[in-house]
Design brief:
The protein contains 2 helices and 17 strands. The chain is α+β, with helices and mostly antiparallel strands. The chain folds into 2 domains: about 1-75, no CATH class; about 80-185, Immunoglobulin-like, CATH 2.60.40. InterPro entries: Cu_amine_oxidase-like_N, Mao_N_sf.
């Protein structure tokens, strides 16, 4: 009796292992590179098609993902967000290391095809320290609008890249979605 159970178990495990090997050889993992950056989750290539993680593609493209449970449909929204940085009335993009001054961020948003409830703007320094510039609930429900932060006093203490990030919160969600970035370079004097 024990021999039969052992034989049956060996047969089942052999079939299962062979099936897994076949499935692995029928589909291949592929590297996916977007704008020079490799995605964390590899794609899967099978039957002449490549399958990718929608969430990772959306994050890479700085898009908003909306999942409709009722229709089992995923929709990606990519609003156009153009940011301008102003020191007084002068647009800037690069600074000298050690500069400290007040600036504000202007953002032009268009092609917004979903309702949002809030926006947030932050800056990350070369040492990965993040400072919130401004966060605000939004009651505007249209496809385009302008957004301006209050002045922020900021010191560019280190040479390197400073990244301004613009986030949106989709109405009915608690998650912030990154939709745009702008880089300031602080150069050594």
């Amino acid at each position: 009796m024990k021999f039969r159970k052992l034989l049956l178990l060996t047969l089942v495990l052999s079939l299962w292992g062979g099936t897994m090997l076949f499935a692995d050889s029928a589909s291949q993992r592929v590297r996916v590179i977007v704008n020079g950056n490799e995605l964390d989750d590899a794609g899967i290539f099978t039957d002449g098609k490549t399958y990718l993680s929608v969430r990772q593609v959306a994050n890479t493209l700085q898009s908003i993902v909306y999942w409709d449970e009722a229709s089992k449909k995923v929709t990606l929204y990519k609003p156009n967000v153009h940011m301008f940085l102003f020191k007084d009335n002068t647009i800037f993009g690069n600074v000298l290391k050690g500069n400290k001054f007040a600036f504000k961020v202007f953002a032009q948003i268009d092609n917004l095809q979903t309702d949002i409830s809030a926006v947030k703007v932050s800056i990350e320094d070369p040492k990965n320290n993040v400072t919130l510039i401004q966060s605000e609930n939004i009651t505007i429900q249209k496809d385009n609008f302008w957004y301006r932060t209050d002045d922020i006093n900021y010191s560019f203490d280190d040479a390197g890249k400073y990244t301004i990030r613009f986030y949106m919160k989709v109405a009915g969600s608690d998650d912030w979605k990154l939709v745009s970035e702008k880089t300031i370079t602080a150069k050594a004097q």
